[in-house]
Design goal:
heterotrimer, A mainly alpha (298), B alpha/beta (433), C mainly alpha (275), B: 433 residues, alpha/beta, D-Maltodextrin-Binding Protein, domain 2, 2 domains, 4-stranded mixed β-sheet, 20 helices, globular, C: 275 residues, mainly alpha, MetI-like fold, 0% strand
């Protein structure tokens, strides 16, 4: 294919080529949708029904209780901070690392492996490891910082009220950014090299090349990576549970730890279900823009 | 052929199949019981239980026991899910923290009919209190397992090193606090405290009530009003007890930093490695601490003493129960196994192997129990021991309390404010009843 | 000159990032090589005074890690392959056909990721038991599909959208059917994405704890992650052993990454050589 037409295909509209056989399309989509319907509809309906069941019938009592509980709103706020901070940092570190290891730097093969490592650790194990590093008695981070003269007293990373949420986010950023990095790295492969060459010929500097070639080329995968990461971080459970269990008090409690606690520790199945439904609705609201972006035609 | 005729044919076919296959089933397959217990994953306890299973199987050739190890933290969640799917293991062990919940959810078989088939004196071998505690709406829902009082465990060598008499443990809470201060030290002279007087598992974990209740109760306080309808966390006695616990961390600083993240095992590790001098524990403490660090020489160095007394002389009881799945296909075999697990012989073995005290009176009068320096104290203190409130909301109520405790201990809120918020929350929980 | 400055800055940033990334692993290794006594020293020793591999040996001999690795590998690989394949098909459908309700269906697929796993445990338990799949690897694979399939569909939609449609057209002119276009044009060109998707689907399944611990009960179904997590919840938690387990538990995934890596950096290398 001649270069010119390929470049045109890249940034040009694709409207000229549209398939008129949707029926075939449904066949491709059917296995996935069918499978998900089969495995998820029953549990989802069970949850929904449970959330509305009160002694002797149906009612919204659990939702009323939920929405009037200040703890719920506190946990929603904390979840929002946790998710925004985590996803934001994942994006910054992931994009930076992907661009850096895609460039001509020494030992980039090594860096690529190193940067994936945290994701290989299951999140609950990551929580345990960070808890060990931050341990108030035997933890190495305090000892290092003390030795370096950066702090005068050992810090109580997981128990000082202002510090505990930050510590959890620190560990979660560590655990999560490789996903964004690898996805973007794979996305970078799909950007034709000649676009960069063409841009360079037009006199574009590194920033302009990033802004007008890299970023548009990554747009779709970036949306996907952020959508999935956002949902995962809202659901993040093992890491938080292992590090703090929601403490001190309720300061690092997030929605997923609350749902777990209500369900498995307090046996309030209906209330936990209502909380889960509320959580899903919130997530839906957050992810609608992502859905719109991914389905958009250029 | 009529429809009835078809049914007859089908029925006779099934009947023929059963006749042909039945002997094969009987000869080839013994009754299989699924047995789940958190002790199975522990080194000492696990070995002891597996030996007991072998003894049972050799005496009951028709019954095979399949052990299903599970961790302490997982068990309620898993049994709960399994019970909902009518797939609970045939026999499981739970402790009183969640037993009431399982009774209420219908996840335990009624053992009364089985007991009634035994001799009239069958239950007389047990203490009355555990039997009464495991009786729910007049039915016996679990057979009592181990039954212990919480006591003060201390390290006599660290007492001596701090200039305290190792034969005179603290008897009042004021004394306890004073001992704590003297036992909190920098032992290697590098300017950093590396030994603390006392430690407790103040994270949110099912082990905390056992360590908190003795203190609260002995200050003359309680969580609920006597009728169980309201929170009593605003009484002067409760405030005093709460403040005492909080200030161990914030004012006296006799507990290690990060206490609100500790689980029971963290505290045992601290004891095993001489980081702390006192903790609250019971019969299980010594073998576990000993396994963590044999060099401590726990049998010699550790001592058990009654809990310090306040207005009341009281402590908390640990009680476990063996429950049978309400959906078991082999209730008779399961009952035989439970009977074996709670027999004098097996309970004696569990004591020898694991130092847990039995809920059977006839075991605790054995010389081997009465001569043991830990068990003696634990059995003797049983007379002052009480159980946590046996209501469905208890885990949630205690969670609200723990939130308050952590907030106060870490300085997130002043202690009065934290306690008041906790009290309000508990009132809300009770109002739902 | 400016280019070289950029390289230096990028390398410096990567070195800093590597310190953040590697520090926990370094501490895991140092702890794993200590005796328990030494691991609990205050202040901590930064290098083992008496290095020992006991923790690794104990981890391996006290428990049946061979079996756990087998379980984890079989379950995670099946999940990864299945979900990537079905997900790629669906993504192709979404990307190339004007489906009525396409946005709704993509939204639905994403929504399935949103229900907290805790709530799914009970119903799954009942469903799997009814199907006779409780406590089986197949049952777990089905459960994991609910996480990995939506993930794979979304990922592949992102990547397949990046394959120019004109190539479809060209292949069609050459006589390819829809399936041919998918296998001969779209899939090869989105291979980096497919490989990355498979890798992460594998890791998602590998790292699960909730479902393994609730949808199986027998010792023969234990996975690596469950075994490591149980070490903490048991009564004899031993930090060196735990760290040894966490390190060993990551090795298969790292091996998989190394094996797959060349597929999604291949294009880059070619481009670099050309440029």
């Amino acid at each position: 294919m001649p270069d010119a037409s390929r470049a045109a295909a890249w940034d040009g509209p694709r409207r000229g080529f549209r398939i008129r056989e949707p029926a075939v399309g449904y066949l491709f989509v059917a296995p996935a949708v069918g499978l998900l319907v089969a495995v998820l509809v029953y549990p989802a309906l069970t949850t929904l029904r449970l959330s509305f069941s009160v002694p002797g019938g149906l009612g919204a009592r659990h939702y009323i209780q939920l929405l009037s509980d200040p703890l719920f709103w506190q946990v929603v706020r904390q979840t929002a901070v946790f998710v925004v901070a985590s996803v934001g940092a994942h994006l910054l570190l992931g994009l930076g690392a992907a661009l850096a290891v895609a460039g001509p730097i020494p030992a980039r093969g090594l860096f690529r492996v190193v940067a994936l490592l945290p994701w290989v650790v299951p999140d609950v194990v990551a929580g345990i490891v960070w808890k060990w590093i931050l341990n108030p008695l035997y933890g190495v981070l305090n000892d290092l910082l003390l030795a370096a003269g950066l702090i005068a007293q050992p810090l109580e990373w997981l128990t000082r009220p202002g510090l505990a949420p930050l510590s959890v986010i620190l560990a979660n950023v560590w655990r999560g950014f490789p996903f964004v990095m690898v996805i973007l790295l794979a996305g970078l492969q799909a950007i034709p090299q000649d676009l960069y060459e063409a841009a360079s010929l037009d006199g574009a500097g590194p920033w302009a090349r990033f802004r007008f070639v890299t970023l548009p080329g990554l747009r779709k995968v970036l949306v996907v990576a952020l959508a999935l990461d956002t949902i995962w971080e809202v659901r993040r459970f093992g890491l938080v549970q292992a590090m703090t269990g929601g403490g001190p008090g309720t300061l690092t409690e997030v929605l997923s730890t609350q749902v777990f606690k209500q369900y498995f520790h307090f046996y309030r199945f209906e209330y936990a279900s209502a909380m889960a439904v509320a959580m899903t609705v919130l997530l839906l609201a957050v992810s609608l823009p992502y859905v719109r972006m991914i389905m958009q035609e250029e | 052929m009529t429809r009835t005729g078809g049914r007859v044919v089908a029925a006779s076919f099934v009947a023929a199949l059963v006749v042909v296959l039945a002997p094969a089933i009987r000869a080839g397959e013994a009754v299989t019981l699924r047995f789940s217990n958190w002790h199975l994953v522990e080194t000492v306890w696990g070995r002891s239980l597996r030996e007991a299973i072998r003894i049972f199987e050799s005496r009951n050739p028709g019954i095979r026991i399949v052990p299903e190890p599970i961790s302490y933290a997982e068990k309620e969640a898993r049994y709960q899910a399994e019970c909902a799917a009518r797939r609970m293991p045939d026999v499981v062990k739970l402790h009183n923290f969640s037993l009431a919940m399982f009774f209420e959810l219908g996840c335990a078989a009624d053992l009364t009919p089985f007991v009634q088939k035994e001799s009239p004196d069958f239950l007389k071998s047990w203490y009355e209190f555990p039997i009464k505690s495991l009786t729910y709406r007049g039915r016996l829902m679990a057979m009592p397992g181990d039954y212990m009082s919480m006591v003060l465990i201390y390290n006599r060598e660290l007492f001596r090193a701090a200039g305290l008499d190792p034969n005179r443990p603290p008897r009042t809470w004021e004394e306890f606090r004073e001992y704590g201060r003297r036992l909190t030290r920098d032992t290697d002279g590098d300017g950093r405290v590396d030994q603390w007087g006392f430690s407790m598992p103040a994270s949110k974990n099912p082990g905390l009530p056992l360590r908190v209740l003795p203190i609260v109760w002995s200050f003359g306080a309680d969580f609920l009003t006597p009728d169980g309808r309201r929170s009593a966390m605003n009484t002067p006695e409760f405030r005093e007890a709460f403040r005492f616990i909080v200030e161990l961390a914030t004012v006296d600083r006799v507990v290690p930093p990060g206490v609100t993240t500790f689980g029971p095992q963290d505290v045992r590790i601290q004891m095993a490695h001489r980081r702390i001098a006192m903790k609250i524990g019971s019969g299980w403490t010594y073998p576990i601490v000993n396994a963590i660090n044999p060099q401590l020489n726990a049998m010699e160095v550790l001592e058990a003493a009654p809990m310090p007394a306040g207005r009341r002389r009281v402590t908390a009881a640990w009680l476990s129960g063996w429950i049978m799945s309400p959906h078991t296909a082999h209730p008779e075999a399961a009952w035989r196994f439970i009977k074996f697990l709670t027999s004098k012989e097996t309970e004696k073995k569990f004591f020898e192997d694991n130092r847990v005290i039995s809920s059977r009176k006839d075991v605790n009068v054995l010389p081997m129990v009465k001569m043991d320096k830990f068990s003696r104290v634990i059995v003797q203190e049983l007379q002052h021991a009480r159980l946590e409130p046996q209501i469905k909301e208890w885990p949630e109520i205690f969670d609200a309390f723990t939130t308050a405790l952590q907030e106060a201990m870490t300085g997130a809120k002043p202690w009065e404010r934290a306690l008041l918020d906790g009290h309000t929350r508990v009132e809300g929980i009770l109002a739902r009843r | 000159m400016r280019l070289r400055l950029g390289t230096v800055l990028a390398t410096g940033a990567l070195v800093l990032l590597s310190v953040y990334v590697l520090f926990p692993f370094g501490w895991m290794l140092v702890t794993a090589l200590k005796t328990e006594q030494e691991a609990l020293r205050i202040p901590s020793t930064w290098w083992p005074h008496q290095p020992t591999v006991d923790a690794f040996v104990v981890m391996w001999t006290r428990k049946n890690y061979g079996l756990y690795f087998l379980n984890s590998t079989v379950i995670s690989l099946s999940t990864a392959v299945l979900s990537s394949a079905v997900g790629a098909l669906a993504a192709y459908g979404f990307s190339r056909f004007p489906l009525r309700g396409g946005s709704f269906l993509m939204g639905f697929i994403l929504t399935t990721q949103m229900l907290p796993g805790v709530l799914l445990v009970g119903p799954y338990f009942r469903v799997l038991t009814a199907l006779g799949l409780y406590d089986t690897r197949t049952g777990l694979v089905i459960a994991f599909l609910t996480i990995c399939l939506p993930f794979a569909t979304w990922m592949m939609k992102g990547f397949i959208d990046g394959v120019p449609r004109e190539l479809d057209e060209a292949a069609r002119v050459d006589g390819c059917g829809w399936l041919g276009i998918f296998t001969r044009v779209v899939l090869p060109l989105s291979l980096p994405g497919l490989v990355a998707t498979t890798l992460f689907a594998f890791l998602l399944a590998w790292g699960d704890l909730l479902w393994v611990s609730t949808l199986t009960h027998s010792e023969s179904m234990v996975t690596v992650t469950l075994a490591i997590a149980r070490t903490v919840q048991e009564f004899y938690v031993n930090w060196p052993e735990l760290m040894a387990g966490a390190l060993i538990g990551g090795l298969p995934s790292i091996a998989l990454y190394l094996a797959l890596q060349r597929w999604f950096v291949q294009g880059l290398t070619a481009g670099a050589v050309k440029g």
